[in-house]
Design brief:
The complex is a heterodimer of chains A (about 375) and B (about 500). Chain A is α+β, with helices and mostly antiparallel strands and about 375 residues long. Chain A contains 12 helices and 17 strands. A 7-stranded antiparallel sheet of chain B has the order 15-12-14-13-17-18-16, sandwiched between helices. In chain B, about 35% of the residues lie in helices and about 20% in strands. Chain B is an alpha+beta fold and about 500 residues long. Classes of the chains: A alpha+beta (about 375), B alpha+beta (about 500). At the A-B interface, strand 7, helix 6, strand 9, helix 7 and helix 8 of A face strand 9, helix 8, helix 9, helix 11 and helix 16 of B.
Chain lengths: ~375, ~500
């Protein structure tokens, strides 16, 4: 405990010092997502020393842990009580931490059924640029006292402050689970996924690629059985299915691992009903049609325009090995001026000297 | 929330009071500016016309605004906000006025902007499972419009017949089913709004996420202090095929609380999980004859929904847990009529309290489930200390408690004791690791309790966040977040765990 207080004091010293000198700090946990975002600059602030689960009572459906706690340790602890992080966050490596997971705000296959990191945030303890330790939210499911700052932290890429402790809602693992497979083209897959989503079916994940649609059903045994009978398709072996969904979640699936030097992996977040886009390259569709991964050599403005016309946005997720300067076109979709103004106001509210992860989300932010 | 009776005008966050003649000049100036941007039937300023707007569902706190604007188009909203921005007139947005924390209470030197005329359902897309509606559309009307497609909008605050979606967004409203289906923040995809400066902004989108910070998540629940909502797109979900409810009795409150934890720990997330103590059960049983066990120290309502086979499976699991935790009686609804009858008691708890007592004061704290028994015991002690009765109904599944303090508003001393009793409960909630409000919002009502839950630095951060959305600090100012000066005053006045120093003196 004492050493944790010391670590906290070191954080404070480093943060206050950085603010005084207006020098950027890069917040880093396991470093498994260093590649994600616009750019990294500044002195390292390593969160790994600030770790440990602070509270976990399975009956309360919430876990509170320090930012540097390994995500794997958290998920193992939850699994022992037959619970899980419902948004299935990707780890991208064994050293991933809870802080990094929330800062990145990424979600896995279950996102369209269960929600994203922001949906499960209940509370956050944050150190602001002045070194003040602030508590927002808490450990209870319903809490409307003050603005909902803890949800704002999810996906903020650490640009607002140093997240010290996080309280996240957890859920029981489903009683039963099965994966079905269908032969279908992209257009039919979009149509089927949206029609099924309008029926009370326990679909918890979906993925279409290259003529095959995979569907994961999970819930009460009776519900899974009935849905399987209603949907048809071909059942996939349990171990193979687990491997498949894990491969999508961690992007170890062959689709993600071979990016040509001049291509890039783009993440398009679109309304689920969007018809297949006429982009060159290969695609993998998830989240009932709402998340589409494209590996393409197409220029950034064209990819962005296609996403915008469909009512969504595109993120340059991973450029190919020879395509690093693609980042100059912006990793994330630029914001309209009124929203950027609000972003800058929020940044200043937490981080007046703009020290935290400067440039990670947008240049000079 | 306080039902019925007028008590007094409350000075909120101590605004500087303008003398009467200056106020009149200010009103003339404002009405003139409003008439330039709105047709005459959209501007109210005579006191007989503005009186219906003097309070929201929290009737104990009321004041007359300078004027009420009822814009009909987004452009009118923009123009009115720009005019008020120019004149430095504060604006209080208002939906259906059913809020329970005074979030829509007018400001004496300000304008009330009612969105009551924004009541069009713009689009129900059954294929995309979304509805785009104007903010004045009633919560229930969305589900009714979606019903032909087998879809509905999940959050169901108890006021859903009357409350508007714009107000739901402002308060992040919950409901009986939010344990399984989430709060407003989980069910809204996109909000279009106008800032105090008159700029149009969109938070969220029809996709599942947006670039940049998740502004939508902090906008929901911001109590009308960031921007005025003009359009909301909500998620619609498939209606469950069937639902069944279990009514269980316990001879001890703590056993009931343990059973709630037991259900969750068994991996079950019921569609609804509600609890009532004996005084509450007795009051409603006399009122609606729901068939509740009058000998029970607590009753538990646990609803399961889904396909018939799924419901049967869950009901069996829940019954086993309840038996294991010592339920003295378990009844399972055998028909839709019986299910509704079991629920009718819980849903009529507030009117039943109204029959028991001239007035009641409803609290809204949330605590970790494990502390339910502890809090109830402490409330029992407070009943003695404040010499007032309290009945307890709560959303046990998520630890959100609604203690109903019974009092007579005509007796000023009783009201002061009720108010102190309420503040004491909220402090206990914070102490037990919970919060002062689970779903009703802070508004003007719980603004003092915010001093207990948040540090000065945290409150400063809230002000800075508001500043990012509303730099002129004109949109619903003086609500939800207390100033440092106000908290200092409250600290001097407030005696922890006891009665006020001078209960005979009026407090402002």
């Amino acid at each position: 405990m004492t050493d944790q207080i010391e670590v906290l004091e070191q954080f404070r010293t480093q943060v206050v010092h950085a603010t005084e000198r207006q020098q950027p700090l890069q917040i880093r946990g396991g470093g498994t997502k260093d590649w994600y975002g616009q750019s990294i600059e500044g002195e390292l602030l390593n969160t790994r020393g600030y770790q440990g689960v602070l509270a976990y009572d399975p009956a309360e459906l919430v876990i509170t842990a320090r930012c540097g706690t390994r995500l794997e340790d958290i998920e193992e602890l939850l699994a022992r009580h037959n619970q899980m992080l419902p948004f299935e966050p990707p780890h991208f490596g064994p050293d991933a931490t809870l802080g990094g997971c929330i800062a990145a705000g990424l979600a896995g296959p279950r996102r369209s059924a269960a929600g994203a990191a922001r949906d499960f945030m209940l509370g956050a303890v944050v150190m602001n640029g002045r070194g003040e330790v602030l508590h927002f939210g808490g450990q209870v499911m319903k809490n409307v006292a003050g603005y909902d700052v803890s949800r704002l932290m999810a996906g903020s890429l650490g640009t607002l402050g140093l997240m010290l402790e996080l309280s996240v809602k957890v859920l029981p693992r489903p009683f039963a689970e099965t994966t079905l497979q269908f032969d279908t083209n992209a257009t039919d897959a979009v149509r089927k996924l949206n029609e099924w989503a309008g029926r009370p079916l326990p679909i918890t994940a979906s993925a279409w690629r290259d003529g095959t649609l995979a569907l994961r059903l999970a819930g009460a045994e009776a519900a899974v059985k009935a849905a399987r009978a209603a949907l048809g398709g071909e059942a996939v072996d349990v171990i193979e299915a687990a491997h498949f969904w894990q491969g999508l979640r961690e992007q170890t699936d062959a689709f993600f691992t071979h990016i040509e030097p001049n291509a890039a992996l783009w993440r398009l977040s679109l309304p689920s009903i969007t018809e297949p886009l006429p982009l060159p390259g290969t695609q993998l569709m998830e989240w009932g049609g709402a998340q589409r991964w494209w590996i393409t050599e197409t220029d950034a403005p064209l990819v962005r325009m296609a996403a915008r016309q469909a009512g969504g946005h595109a993120t340059l997720f991973r450029p190919g090995p020879g395509n690093g300067n693609l980042r100059q076109a912006g990793v994330f979709t630029p914001l309209p001026a009124p929203l950027m103004k609000i972003h800058r106001g929020l940044k200043t509210a937490f981080d007046p000297a703009h020290i935290f992860n400067r440039g990670r989300l947008y240049p000079d932010f | 929330m306080v039902e019925s009776s007028t008590y007094k005008e409350m000075a909120v966050n101590a605004p500087a009071e303008l003398p009467a003649e200056k106020l009149e000049a200010r009103q003339r100036e404002l009405v003139q500016a409003l008439n330039a941007c709105l047709p005459s039937h959209c501007v109210l300023h005579r006191s007989e016309d503005t009186t219906p707007y003097e309070c929201d569902g929290l009737a104990a706190y009321r004041t007359l605004p300078l004027a009420v604007a009822l814009p009909e188009t987004e452009i009118q909203v923009q123009r009115v906000l720009q005019a008020c921005h120019r004149l430095g007139v504060p604006v209080v947005p208002r939906g259906a006025g059913t809020g329970l924390s005074g979030g829509a209470m007018p400001i004496r030197e300000g304008l009330v902007m009612s969105l009551a005329r924004f009541k069009k359902i713009l689009n129900v897309d059954s294929y995309a499972r979304t509805a785009t509606v104007q903010p004045g559309v009633r919560n229930l009307a969305i589900s009714e419009a979606a019903a032909p497609y087998g879809l509905y909008y999940a959050p169901d605050p108890s006021s859903q017949i009357a409350c508007s979606i714009g107000g739901n967004v402002a308060e992040n409203s919950g409901g009986v089913h939010c344990l399984k289906y989430g709060l407003t923040v989980h069910n809204v995809l996109r909000v279009r709004a106008v800032t105090m400066e008159g700029e149009i902004v969109e938070f969220g989108s029809l996709a599942l996420d947006s670039p940049g910070l998740d502004l939508l998540s902090v906008f929901v629940g911001s109590e009308g202090m960031f921007a005025v909502v003009t359009e909301v797109t909500v998620k619609l979900i498939p209606k469950p095929q069937t639902a069944q409810v279990i009514l269980a009795s316990f001879d001890d409150l703590e056993k009931g609380g343990d059973a709630v934890a037991g259900i969750i720990a068994a991996g079950i997330i019921p569609a609804g999980l509600e609890m009532m103590d004996k005084p509450a059960t007795r009051a409603v049983e006399e009122f609606v004859k729901a068939g509740y066990d009058l000998d029970a120290a607590a009753i538990l309502l646990c609803e399961s929904d889904g396909t018939p086979a799924e419901v049967a499976e869950e009901i069996e699991r829940v019954s086993a847990v309840l038996t294991r935790y010592g339920a003295t009686r378990i009844q399972i609804s055998r028909s839709e009529a019986e299910r509704l009858r079991f629920w009718s008691g819980r849903k009529n708890a507030f009117p039943a309290a109204g029959r028991m007592s001239p007035d009641y004061y409803c609290m809204d704290g949330t605590i970790p489930r494990r502390s339910i028994g502890t809090l109830l015991k402490r409330i029992g002690l407070m009943e003695e200390r404040y010499q007032l009765r309290c009945m307890n109904v709560f959303h046990a599944g998520d630890g959100n408690m609604h203690p109903l303090i019974l009092f007579n508003g005509n007796d000023h001393d009783e009201w002061l004791r009720a108010e102190a009793f309420g503040a004491d409960i909220l402090e206990a909630c914070v102490e037990l690791g919970g919060t002062i409000t689970g779903e009703h919002g802070v508004g003007v009502e719980k603004i003092n309790s915010m001093c207990v839950q948040f540090s000065p630095e945290e409150r400063d951060t809230f002000f800075a966040i508001k500043h990012a959305f509303d730099p002129a600090r004109l949109l619903n100012p003086d609500k939800a977040i207390p100033t440092r000066a106000r908290c200092a005053d409250y600290g001097r006045l407030h005696v922890r765990g006891g009665l006020l120093p001078h209960p005979e003196l009026p407090r402002f």
